[in-house]
Amino acid sequence: MLDPAALLAGQGPEPSSAPVPRVLLPETAEVDGAGRLRVGGLDVCELAERFGTPLFVYDELDLRRRCREARAAFGEGVAYATKAFLCRAMAALAVEEGLWLDVSTGGELHVALAAGVPPERLVLHGNNKSEEELAQALELGVGRIVVDSFDEIDRLGALLGRSGRVGERRVPQPVLVRVTPGVEAHTHEFVRTGQDDSKFGFGLASGAAAEAVARVRALAGLELVGLHAHIGSQVFKVASFAEAVAVLAEFFRPLGLGELCVGGGLGVPYVTGEPAPTMAEWAAAVRGACEAAGIGPEVRVTAEPGRAIVARAGMTLYRVGTVKELPGIRTYVAVDGGMSDNPRPVLYGSGYEAFLPRAALAARPRAVRVVGKHCESGDVVVADARVPEDLAVGDVLATPVTGAYGYAMASNYNKVPRPAVVFVAEGRARVVVRRETLDDLLRLDVGPGDAGVA
Predict the structure, then answer these.
(1) Is 13 annotated as a binding residue?
(2) 8-state DSSP, 205
(3) Which of 194, 239, 327, 408 is 20 to 30 A off residue 302, Cα-Cα?
(4) Keyword annotations for this protein (predicted)?
(5) Which region, left, alpha or beta, applies to residue 328 given φ > 0 means left and ψ of -120 to 50 means alpha?
(6) How is residue 101 annotated by DSSP?
(7) 274 is annotated as contributing to ligand binding
(8) Burial class (CB in 10 A: 0-12, 13-18, 19+), 404
């Protein structure tokens, strides 16, 4: 078994010169007779010509199948973690397939509502929810608020007052208390969240979780329906989730609650040879741990997958602009995007593959470093890529498995406009997020002659 922490630190398996394996490509990916990649029935290189680059391409059938897989694994209440990738089209798709949505800010809440998502299918997260965010959630009657701090309990108490009313609406508002179980998931330290030293939730060992439960139960207008725990992201060992359940069980059972959410964080393969469990295996491990710990079938066990739903469905298309040979050192291949559309390599040392969609089955013997166009030496897309020998300026180069935390974490660094996002299905492509223009970069600027200057 490969060490996930080492993979995240760029110490994974040796790069392969073989074609990118099928498991890293979207569900409907196929190679035509000319060796060109097609997704959703469409030629990938032609998508780059039609919509420009950089371009995020999502396989809509893949997205839908992953949503259905999550629903089948965990049942009613399983929520898509929108932080992985959110736009109105994605929100609507997830709800159409039977999922709730996990939103962690007022902005994510706003997009979900704009997509027509019913408030009762929303779960509001966040370690520092503002009074305004909480007030809106109470007014709307969101499905769940996940309580994360004592300050938040105080804010909720002030908003509810003694009557337990929000405006004309009688609550109770269903809430979960987020517990940090003291389990350190085997993943990058930046995305671990279940250990005692965490900005999230209430510590179990310290007694904070017990105090939070008592304070929530004492508030008129709140209904404590369950507990929530999230141990981290890009977790490859389902045993880590089972361990969290075992630790939580002794605290959970005496409370008489009907719901336990194990959060998200299931890992996905990004590079050749990287193993990862399925959502069904994840759910089976969690339910097995619940049964072993005496948590009965009457308890609704839910989860919040994000990366596991959208990562593989998406790929990024770039245009090669420069090939710079440094004899005896390395070859740099510069593309028209970079850390502004995928900051994960610079943040976490994350590994990716690269290939040419015009020759999807070609061997990739040439070692290169794929870099972006930003004014940073750390602007690396694929640190140790393998590509065909004939890669040249003007080629479309693809990085697969970029559906999660690519567009979601995109920026305008160096004033680079963010890419467009396209969904493809059954031979049709639709733009779900338009490409930013240069004028968009000025949209928020306030000049000296503009009205409203402070």
Answers:
(1) no
(2) T
(3) 408
(4) Amino-acid biosynthesis, Decarboxylase, Lyase, Lysine biosynthesis, Pyridoxal phosphate
(5) left
(6) E
(7) no
(8) buried
- CATH fold, domain 7-58+312-435, is Lyase, Ornithine Decarboxylase; Chain A, domain 1 (2.40.37)
Domains 7-58+312-435 and 125-304 share a fold: no
Q: How far apart are CA 396 and CA 356, in angstroms?
A: 6
If one counts every other C-beta atom within 10 angstroms of the C-beta of residue 114, the result is 12
- Fold held by 125-304: TIM Barrel (3.20.20)
Closest CA to 245 of 268, 257, 227: 227
Which of 259-278 are b and which e, b meaning 16 or more Cβ less than 10 Å from the residue's Cβ?
bbbbbbbbbbbbbbebebbe
Domain ranges of the chain: 7-58+312-435, 125-304
- The torsion angles phi and psi of 271, rounded to 5 degrees, stand at -130, 165
Question: What are 425-448's pLDDT values in tens digits?
Answer: 999 999 999 999 999 999 999 988
Model pTM greater than 0.85?
yes
The count of other CB atoms within 10 Å of the CB of residue 314 is 26
Cβ burial of 332 (10 Å; 0-12, 13-18, 19+) is middle
389 is in an annotated binding site: no
Query: Any known ligand binding at 405?
Result: yes
**265 is known to lie in a ligand binding site:** yes
Q: Cα–Cα distances in Å, from 428 out to 34, 66, 163? A: 21, 20, 53
Pairwise CA distance, residues 176 & 248, whole Å: 14
The model's pLDDT over 265-316, given as tens digits with 9 standing for 90+, comes to: 999 999 999 989 999 999 999 999 999 999 999 999 999 999 999 999 999 9
Cβ atoms 85, 310 nearer than 8 A: yes
